[in-house]
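thought: fold this chain, then report.
action: predict
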Amino acid sequence: MTQHIASAYDRDLEEIQALIMKMGGLVEAAIMDGAESLETHDIALAEKVRAGDRVIDALEEQINEAAARVIALRAPVSKDLRVLLATVKLAGSLERVGDYAKNMAKRTSVLAEMRTVNGTEAALRRMSREVRGMLKDALDAYLRGDAELAESVRQHDHDVDQMYNALFREFLTFMMEDPRNITACMHLHFIAKNVERMGDLVTNMAEQVIYLETGEMPDEARPKGDDTSVTLIDDEGV
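observation:
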C-alpha cells in the first residue's frame, strides 16, 4: 500500500488489510473443513464450520465499519480510495464464499444418512481444494499488489468450471443407473454448483485486485467452462 505522511492513516489501512487476511484465512479453512466433513461424514467438523461462519460475518461488518470510518475521517482520493472500496468488495465476496462453505457443511448431516455415491464426495473435495488454492493466490495478490498473480487466478476459474461439468455428468449417470441415487445426487449437485460459485467469487476478488493495481477492470472476458446450462435455486445463506 502507498506510504503516507500521516502515519495514523497508514496504520488504519494496515489494520483493515490485516482484517481481510484474517477473514480470508478463516474462509480458506471453512472451504477445506466443509469438504472434509462431507467426504468423511464428520458431523462435528461440519458443525464447527457452521458455527465459524458467524465469526466470518462479524469480520465483514468490522471491515466495512473500519473502511467507512477511514473514508469519513481521511477523505482519501485516487488509489487510496480504490484500496478502501476494493477492500469492502473483497470482504463481501469472502463472506459469500463462507456462506457456501457453511451450506456444504449443512448438507453433511443429510448425506451421512444416505448411501455413498461412488467417490463423488472425494471429487468435491478436490474441487474445493482447487478453489481454496485460487483464494490463497487472490489474497497473496492483494497483499503483494500483484496484478499478474491475480490474472492467473482469473484463468484458473476455467479449471473449476471443467471439474463441475465432469461432476454434473457423473451425477446424471448415477441417477440414470439407479433411481436410489437421485436424492443424494441432487444434494451433491447443489454442493458442486456452490463450489463452482465460490470459484466465481474468488475470480471477482482477483479482478478487484487488478482494478486496485491498475485503476481499470480487466478488458477480456474471463474463460468460462460451465456448459451444463442448468438453473438452480441458490441456497446461499439457507
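thought: worth noting. Residues 1-5, 229-234 have pLDDT under 50 and may be disordered.
final: C-alpha cells above.
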